[in-house]
Design brief:
2 strands, 8 helices, mainly alpha, 133 residues
């Protein structure tokens, strides 16, 4: 069974032992709206989700991804099928503790810096391009 916005909100509230009225009052939301959210009759606005996350002291992205998957769930699907492949994190490539080799030859610090700069440039360019879309 797929988790819904309502089930996630209900579970969080119940785990904290709070009533709908208590949460609604604390977040300046009507109990009727909160009930509709928990019953998946309506979807809370992004602002309401962020307000609830602040109240619960939690990251809003999980609920935002459930409520607005086209906008927020992209990160889950970002990786293609990687089974059986070697994963190299960009953070590791840029780390001072990483040694790079090519054809079993150690790359100099200058070449490592060049590779790291190129990789960082690709990330920045792709981030800027996705913001334009």
């Amino acid at each position: 069974m797929t988790e819904t916005v309502g089930s996630a909100l209900r579970q969080t509230r119940k785990n904290r032992g709070e009533s709908i009225v208590e949460v609604a009052k604390a977040t300046h939301t009507s109990p009727a709206s909160f009930t509709k959210w928990e019953n998946d009759q309506t979807v809370p606005s992004e602002r309401s989700i962020r307000k609830l996350a602040e109240y619960y002291d939690s990251d809003p992205l999980a609920i935002l991804a459930l409520a607005y998957p086209d906008k927020y769930a992209k990160a889950k699907n970002a990786l293609p099928d990687i089974e059986g492949k070697t994963i190299i994190r960009l953070e590791d490539l840029l780390s001072n503790n990483t040694v790079l080799t090519y054809n079993d030859q150690l790359l100099s610090a200058a070449k490592k810096e060049l590779v790291a700069s190129f990789a960082a440039g690709l990330v920045i360019a792709s981030t800027n391009a996705s913001e334009v879309e």
